[in-house]
Design brief:
The structure holds 2 protein chains of 2 kinds. Chain A is α/β, with parallel strands linked by helices. Chain A has 16 helices and 16 strands. The chains are: A alpha/beta, B alpha/beta. At the A-B interface, strand 2, helix 3, strand 4, helix 5 and helix 6 of A face helix 3, strand 1, helix 4, helix 5 and helix 6 of B. Strand 4 of chain A pairs parallel with strand 1 of chain B. Chain B: It is an enzyme of class 2 (transferase). Chain B: This is Serine palmitoyltransferase 1.
């Protein structure tokens, strides 16, 4: 059962039914859903059995013990930890895998061994060089050599690592001002403010924009930071179905016509929060339609471009660039520097009066340390490269390489018969696994073939929709992608992942360079 | 007229009534039940039916009119262009013991650089090496290849430093305690929180949606009163009481007040009233205690009795981020439940490397360093007390002090004037800034922070300038 709208060309209006909007969310085959639920049921039953054995003392309790006396109220309810104890621990080795190198296109994964079924780990000392398909490195700026890291090193020498002060009090460094004006220029907006953490940018700034008496319309699949920010603001939150414009319109109409619940007073303002690229689905928001709706109903729009800035659009300017809309139509542009710029932090950009208000009343600006110099310098260097200010066309090459890699990888996966979610141009490529055991199997088998991938299941996704999520990078060469595709082909055959009924499929066959160039790079 | 009833009338009524009763006896059963049903229906209609809200059956035109008429408020209210946040100072160079503003160098008493690690060459060297090995960013959350070996090393070192089982690091100081509290305390739980805690803790408390009981700042009697009241409620409903978790949230050294919490008595009460203690030692870590291990060392309390110690890497350590240490039982839970840990990119490796080197220096220099900072704090405290016209808040060994004007002269305007005057004499100090929606807005003050490398002459100079400023402002 799929929860999403699948677009077909010719749907809706002409504006968004072009190739940019081609998104696929093939329906879950019923038998797969049934087997998945059965799998969880068996695991749960085994979990209850094991808990019972632990309770009566036949099995050793391996969880840590509360150092406080027994008459304290237990810190965790037993059922809260049921999932952790009995399901998560079984496959714990595939999460939190440490690395010992730069998180670039290739990475050294530290091998861990466990003698007690994942309760404790020991490092074997071996480092597995793998192709990194899990880190958010869309434009390949996660490098320890090159102009960006050299300039970051220089900035440590000039400005040290930190300032130990908040912005409101002592002030900010010159480089922060430089970053903000450069970012505003990059996005083609009036002003921008930068923060030290992307999560905190959402969680601590949405409360300054919305409050009691306001309505927040949030996409069902929004990130946790957006949901936390909306909750902390005190505004009323209503969710609309993912990317469903009819549902959004219905909510808008209902909100304005009926007003606030109980008192029926009109809403003070309505804020629509969407993301540019949704990191678990790989879908893009339908920005032109949302802007039309927001203009029609006088709502405000907040777009979180954490995964889309730098990675989407012909000039790397995000979904605004991708859909060719006017940036002034969006009140708040938000994004992070972690993914495409190889650094850390977040930003909010928009009209000057909005950014000024955030400068004055943001929690981050008043209570958090200013950003660190090398972090900011990395962003400035990366931005200069993308914008071509460094005198080379390295930036444009990276953007094109990423777009090319994405199209190639997605197409090959679809041809192999996997169910691939998301927009054809999104660098986030989720491939469906469905069954819980496959989460561990795919991860381990891919690592054996020197590919580091990310597999996710419940609760990050719906119960029946576990997936392996690839993050493509401009740093990946055709050889690396071919290696990954070959590995995926073998693993897909081993673990039976070819669920797709829509497309005819075949085993993977390497595309030679000439054909590849003809089809993808021209 | 015939207003009173005659005997005949009464008799006929009685007969009628008797006939009625007789008819009931002879009536078929279905008839009687139907009558009873009608009576009950009437009673229900009259007394119990809720008046149904008149449903809006609007026409399309009316709906469109409502939509056209609705005018939202502006997204943000207008802002005063002279607000200090819009006219902040621009700094150049390293913000260490001295800071450069508009080309002029001044002594820095405004940043949380207690141990003068900002600009330390060893730390910068390690940070540079980390950039050469790992690049700048970590490109992912901890769960998805964002865990780098240097993070694991820092967590181990912090746990070892505090002699605790496990440590966990966060990528942002504010988010540390703000993510920790909601990870443990849920809707039905109770938080006993000191009123003077800083904003990040207030946000964490808000995010947890628990019942909050604020007690007066550092007032043990008030805390005991609240605990006793809760105990009475518990006795009334012991079954429910067994499912409510209780936490005490305090700071080691309060950022907003500069005073130390009365920890020993709070630990005693912990075992009496059965709550767990979470201390935020952002300021006290690296400043208090013989070897900089915070209030637990200062009071010589066994750290096993404290459930969780959280702190920031943005103060004494001179890096960015935050951490928490405690028993594995407590800390491990955060790896799956703390939102700021699971859903956020991990700390950039160069900042972790800087923190590890700072810890190395703290361990190497150990007691002499911390004795120096505590004794300098005491000397500064004495000097400030001797200036008539100021009142000094904070413990004498605290390197963070709040300075206010005595009597009713204490306004933000006057304090700003003092700050500006000091700047002309090459001393940088700052007024403590707060947002207006703090739980308990502290009174305006200048927050003075002592850097361990300040010499006695420099401290003397600071006091001289403060004295002159006072004269200028009160004349």
């Amino acid at each position: 059962m799929s929860n999403y709208q699948t677009n077909k060309p010719g749907d809706d209006n002409n504006r968004t039914s072009d190739h940019r909007n081609r998104e696929e969310f093939e329906e879950t085959p019923t038998w797969a859903a049934v087997v998945t639920v059965l799998g969880y049921a068996i695991l749960s039953a085994l979990g209850w059995l094991r808990d019972f054995l632990r309770h009566i003392g036949l099995e050793e309790k391996r969880t840590a013990h509360d150092p406080n006396p027994k008459d304290f109220v237990p810190l965790y309810q037993s059922y809260e930890c049921f999932y952790t104890r009995n399901l998560y621990t079984r496959i714990r080795d595939v999460f939190n895998q440490p690395i010992a190198s730069v998180a670039g296109a290739k990475v050294h994964v530290m091998e861990r061994v466990s003698d007690d079924y994942n309760w404790t780990f020991k490092f074997s000392g071996k480092k597995i060089p793998s192709i990194n398909l899990g880190s958010y490195n869309y434009l390949g700026f996660a490098e320890n050599q090159g102009p960006c890291s050299e300039q970051a090193i220089k900035s440590i020498e000039t400005y040290a690592v930190t300032t130990c002060s908040t912005r409101h009090e002592l002030g900010h460094q010159r480089y922060v001002k430089e970053l903000e004006s450069l970012m505003a220029e990059y996005l083609n907006v009036e002003d921008c403010i930068a923060f030290g953490m992307g999560f905190a940018t959402n969680a601590l700034n949405i409360p300054t924009l919305a409050g009691k008496g306001d309505l927040i319309l949030s996409d069902k699949l929004n990130h946790v930071s957006l949901i936390l920010g909306a909750r902390l603001s005190g505004a009323t939150i209503r969710t609309f179905n993912h990317n469903d414009m009819k549902d959004l319109e219905a909510h808008l109409r209902k909100a304005i016509i009926s007003g606030q619940p109980r008192t029926c007073r009109p809403w003070k303002k309505i804020l629509i929060i969407v993301e540019g690229v949704y990191s678990m689905e790989g879908s893009l928001c339908k920005l032109p339609e949302i802007i039309e709706l927001k203009k029609k109903y006088k709502a405000y729009l907040y777009v979180d471009e954490a995964h889309s800035i730098g990675a989407i659009g012909s000039r790397g300017r995000g979904v605004v660039d991708y859909w060719k809309v006017d940036p002034n139509d969006i009140e708040i542009h938000m994004g992070t520097f972690t993914k495409s710029f190889g650094s850390a932090g977040g930003y909010i950009a928009g009209k000057k009066n909005i950014i000024d208000y955030i400068r004055v009343s943001s929690h981050s600006a008043c209570y958090s340390s200013s950003m660190s110099a090398p972090i900011v310098q990395q962003i400035i260097s990366a931005l200069s490269i993308i914008m071509g200010r460094d005198g080379t066309n390295d930036g444009q090459k990276r953007i094109q390489q990423l777009a090319c890699n994405v199209r190639y990888f997605r197409r090959q996966l679809v041809d192999m018969g996997f169910i691939v979610y998301g927009n054809n141009n999104s660098p986030v490529v989720p491939v469906m696994l469905f069954m819980p055991a496959k989460i561990a199997a795919v991860n381990r088998e891919m690592l054996k073939r020197d590919c580091a991938v990310v597999t996710v299941g419940f609760p990050a996704t719906l119960l029946t929709e576990s997936r392996v999520r690839f993050c493509i990078s401009a740093g990946h060469t055709k050889e690396m992608l071919d290696h990954a595709l070959k590995a995926m082909d073998e693993v897909g055959h081993l673990v039976s992942l070819r669920y797709s009924k829509k497309n005819p499929h075949h085993r993977w066959v390497e595309l030679d360079h000439a054909d590849y160039d003809k089809e993808y790079t021209s | 007229m015939g207003s009173s009833m005659t005997r005949g009338d009464i008799e006929s009524l009685a007969t009628d009534f008797y006939d009625l009763l007789e008819s009931f006896k002879h009536a078929p059963f279905y008839h009687i039940s139907f009558e009873i049903f009608l009576v009950l229906a009437v009673i229900w209609l009259v007394f119990f039916r809720k008046p149904r809200a008149i449903e809006k059956k609007l026409t399309e035109r009316e709906k469109q009119e409502l939509i056209d008429e609705w005018q939202p408020e502006p997204l943000v209210p207008p802002v005063d262009p002279n607000h200090p946040a819009l006219n902040v100072r621009v700094l150049d160079g390293i913000v260490g013991k001295t800071v450069e503003i508009d080309g002029k160098k001044s002594l820095n008493f405004a940043t949380f650089n207690f141990l003068n690690f900002v600009g330390n060459s060893r730390i910068s060297e390690k940070a540079i090496q980390a950039v050469q090995k790992y690049g700048v960013g970590s490109c992912g959350p901890r769960g998805f290849y964002g865990t780098i070996d240097i993070h694991l090393e820092l967590e181990e070192r912090l746990a070892k430093f505090f002699n605790c089982e496990e440590g966990i690091i966060y990528s942002y100081g504010f988010s540390t305690i703000a993510s920790i509290i909601p990870a443990y305390s849920k809707r039905n739980d109770i938080l006993f929180v000191d009123e003077g805690v800083h904003y990040a803790i207030q946000k964490g408390v808000e995010a947890s949606r628990s019942h909050v009981k604020w007690f007066k700042h550092n007032d043990i009697q008030d805390l005991e009163r609240l605990l006793a009241e809760q105990e009475v409620l518990d006795k009334k409903n012991p079954k429910k009481a067994r499912t409510i978790r209780r936490f005490l949230i305090i700071e080691g050294l309060y950022v907003n007040y500069g005073d130390i919490c009365p920890l020993p008595r709070m630990v005693e009460l912990k075992y009496k009233y059965k709550y767990r203690i979470f201390i935020d030692e952002s300021v006290s870590f690296g400043t208090i205690g013989q070897t900089g291990r915070g209030v637990t060392e200062y009071y010589d309390i066994d750290r096993q009795k404290i459930d969780l110690i959280s702190s920031s890497l943005e103060y004494s350590i001179g890096s960015i981020g935050g951490f928490a240490v405690g028993s594995s039982f407590v800390v491990d839970h955060q790896r799956l439940s703390a939102q700021g840990y699971c859903f956020s990119a991990s700390l950039p490796p160069l900042l972790a490397a800087a923190a590890i080197e700072a810890l190395n220096i703290m361990e190497e220099q150990s007691t002499p360093l911390f004795e120096t900072i505590m004794s300098k704090s005491k000397r500064l405290h004495k000097k400030l007390l001797s200036i008539k016209g100021y009142s000094v808040m904070g413990d004498e060994i605290s390197p963070l002090k709040h300075l206010r004007l005595a009597n009713a002269l204490n306004t933000i305007g006057r304090l700003e004037e003092i700050v500006q005057f000091a700047q002309t004499r090459d001393i940088t100090i700052t007024v403590a800034r707060y947002l207006t929606d703090e739980h308990l807005l502290p009174e305006p003050s200048i927050r003075l922070i002592l850097n361990v490398e300040m010499t006695d002459e420099e401290l003397e100079f600071l006091c001289t300038v403060l004295q002159e400023a006072l004269v200028k402002v009160t004349s």
